[in-house]
Request: fold
Amino acid sequence: MSQPVSYRVVGNVGVITIDNPPVNAFSHAVRTGLRDAVETATADATGIVLIACAGRTFVAGADISEFGKPPADPWLPEVLDLVEASHKPVVTAVHGTALGGGFELVLASHYRCAVAGARVGLPEVHLGLLPGAGGTQRTPRLAGVEAALDLMLSGKPIRAAEAESLGLIDRVFEDNLEANALAWCEELLAAGEGPRKVSEKTVPTVDTAVFEATRKTLAKRARGQLAPFKIVDCVEEATRADFASGAEFERERFRECLESPQSAAMRHLFFAEREAAKVSDLPKETPVREIRSVGIIGGGTMGGGIAMSCANAGLPVHLLEVDAAALERGFSIIKGNYSTTVSKGRLKAQDAEQRLGLIEGTADYAALADVDVVIEAVFEDPELKKTIFRKLDEVCKPGAILATNTSYQDVDAIAAVTSRPEDCIGLHFFSPANVMRLLEVVRGEKTSGEVLATAIRFAKTIRKVPAVSRVCYGFIGNRMVNPYMREAQKLLLEGAMPETVDAALFDFGMAMGPVAVSDLAGLDIGYKARQALPPEARGDETAFRVVDTLVEAGRLGQKTGAGFYTSDPATRAAAPDPNVAKLIVETSEALGIERRDIEDTEIVERCVFSLVNEGMKILEEGVAQRPGDIDIVYLYGYGFPVFRGGPMFYADAVGLPHVLERVREFHERFNSGEPAALLESLVADGKRLADWAGTDA
Ligand code: 3H9
Reply:
C-alpha cells in the first residue's frame, strides 16, 4: 500500500502531501506520516514547508472509526504542536473541506490559504466531541471569542471567504491552488517571513457575560448534551490561561467527551446515516436513472412541502391538483413558507422567486407525460391512490418512477394496479416535508434494484436522509410508534396525566412528549387510521378511550385550539386542561382501572422499550435491514435524542437483559407487547444488537 503522506521538494519549498482517500482522515498512519514528513522537511535545505492534500478534500478530521479503540501514538495534538514549533514557516493549502482535526492542522500552521470553493469548520460537536487538537484555544485567538463559539457550537462549515474575513484564512485563490500556494511560499520566503504562532497570540478581550449567556441559550438548544458546554468552558479558559494550560484543559475535556456514552451514540449515528443509504442486496454498480424533473400529485401541506424540497434542489416540478382553486390554495401555502424563510433572513428574495418559478401548477395529467418521477401525495385513501396510479400508468413515459407518499398503505397493492410494478416505490416524507430530513424509501415486493437505487440517490439530491423499509403496516417509523403511543395512552388510564407523561419523555431527551405530539399532529389522524383497520387488527381499543372521546367531542388538538391540552391561538403554548384531567380519571373508573402513582422511569421504559421491542420484530422480519437504519428513522423523523443514538443503540447501551426483563414484566402486568423473539434470543446468547448478523428474511 502506498504511503498516505509523501514529501517532495519543489524549488525552495518542501511539499508534504496527505493522500488518504476518501476524505484524508487523520488515521494513525497519517499522523505518523505527517510527523515524519515534518521532521524531514524541517531538517533539509528548503526554506519553507507547504502542507496540502491529494484527492477530493483537505483533511476532514480525525479518523472517527479509531475513536473507541485504544489510543495510538502519536496523538494528533502532539503532531500539530510539532507543526507549529517548526523553525521554518509552514503553509497549509485547503481545498474541499478542512474539518475538525484537519482545520486544527490549518490553525497550527503559520500561513493559511484556500481555494475559493473550500470550506472550513469544527464539526466535532455533532459527534459529541470538542475540537481536541488545539482548536478551542487557537480559534478564539484568531477570530475572537464570539466567532469561535459560533463555529464550534454550530459545527457548521463556513466558506473560505468568510473564514478569511474572520482572520482564520490569510489568502483565498480563485483556482490553481497548488501553483498559487507554491508561488505564495516563494513570496513569503523572499520577504523573509518567519513562523507566526497562533499560540503566542492573546485572545481579543471580550465581555465575559457572553459565556453565561451562551450557556443559558445552550440549556435549551443543546438540552441534555455534554460537549457544547465543555466547548464553552474551553473557550472561557482560553481567555484566562496561557496556551499551554488552555491546551491541557482542552485535552482533559476532550477525553471526557470521547469516553462519554453520548459521543459513542453520536459516532454510531454518523456511520449509521451513511450505511442506511446502502442496501445489502443491491450491488454498488446498480445503474441509476437520471432524475431531471418531478411530478407531484396533491398540493396540500405534504405535496407542497415535497415540491419545495425538489425546487430547493433545483429540480423543475409539475404540481397537479384537481382544479385551479385547489392549485391556488397550494401555491399560497408554498409562497407563505418561502416568504417566512426570506423574512427570517435564511433565503434571498430572488432565490425564493427562482425556486417558486421552478414549480408549475397543472390540473392535467398530460403535463406528467415526460417527468422522470411522480410522487403521489394525496390523503390516505387506498382506493384514491390506486385510481391515481392507474392514470399514471396510462400517461407517464416508460421508465418513469411512480412513487406513493404514504404512511401506512400497502405499496404492493398500489403498484399491482399498474402494468409496471417494478417502477413503483413508496416514498414516505415527514411533515413539514420541506423541513424534515427523513425519507423512508419503501421497496415493494417487485420494485427493481434500479428504481430503489435511483430513489436513494434522489433522496440525497433533495437533501433528505434515506432509510429503506420493506412493506408492512406503518413501515419502520409508524409501525414502531404505534405501541409507543399506545403505552402513553395506557399510562394515562393507569394514573399519569398528559403533562407528567410528556415531561418524563421530554426529560429523557425527546423533542416532544407523546401526548403533545398527538395534539400537534391532530388527534383525528390516529383515530381515523384506527377506524380504517379491521377490528381484529386494532388491538385493545380501550387504551384509546380518552382520545376517542376527545375526537368525538371535536377536540382534535392544536388545530382546534384544544385536544389533550388547550393551546393559545397566538403563541400555541399548551396548558393542561382540568376537564381533560377529569375525563381521564372518569375513564379509568369506567374501565375499572385502579389509578396509581407512576414513576418517571416507568413512563420512559414503558414507552421507549415498546419502541425497541417492536424494532426487534421489524429486524426479525427483515423490514429494516439493520438496527442503525431504525436509529436513523427515529433521529430524523421522530425527535429521538441524538445523544442517545436512537432506540436500538440505546437498548444496547442500557443492556438487553434489562430491556427484556422490563418488556416481560410490562407484558405480564399491563398487557404490553409480547417480547420479540430476537430480543429473547440475543439475551439467551449473551449478545448485543450490535453483534447481530442480520436476518435472511
Ligand atoms: C476530530 O477531528 C477530533 C479532533 O478535533 C481532535 C482529535 C484529537 N473519519 O460523508 P461521506 C467516511 S473529530 C473516518 O459519505 P461526503 C464516511 O464514513 C472529526 N471516516 O462523503 C464514508 O465512508 P463510506 C471531525 C470518515 O462527500 C466516506 O468517508 N470531522 C470521516 O458526503 C465518505 O464520507 C468530521 O466530523 C472521518 N472523519 O462528505 C467530518 N469522514 O464510504 C466528518 C468521512 O464507507 N465527515 N468518513 O460510507 C464529513 O462531514 C463528511 O464525510 C465530509 C464528506 C463533508 C468530509
